[in-house]
Amino acid sequence: MGYIEQNLIAGETVAYRTQLHWIIFLWPAVFLIFAVIGVMGRQDYGAGALLVGLVWGLYSYIRFSSSEFGVTNRRVLIKVGFIRRHSLELLLSKVEGIGVDQGIIGRVLGYGTIIVTGTGGTKEPFRNIAAALEFRRMVQQHVASSQ
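and the corresponding structure tokens:
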């Protein structure tokens, strides 16, 4: 059971969930490929690239597995972090806007940065979110239906 399910209130149901995009594993994979090439070619950088790739890959895996993004029939719930946790729980009635920032690669691969703006000036960006446009659509749909 994840963070979102543990923090549901009475009568609340999860309408949409997403996670971080697989793109966060790209650079660790590049370093691991360089490590394999370096080891096979008996280059000196192979061990260093392997260490960097493994550490960065582990860090990315922890980020991936400890991040949750959800929309319920009452709130937007976001939790990122394992040791140092950052969470946002915003009632749909308090959502003022939700923006999506996508570069060219993000548009092609389907990820982006969501910026949740709440009443009172709360402005929270969350990067590398899978299906960011769908997340925004679901928030807007539930905000409209709750009014």
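(Above: one complete record from the training split.) The helical segments are 3-6, 26-40, 46-65, 104-109, 132-146.
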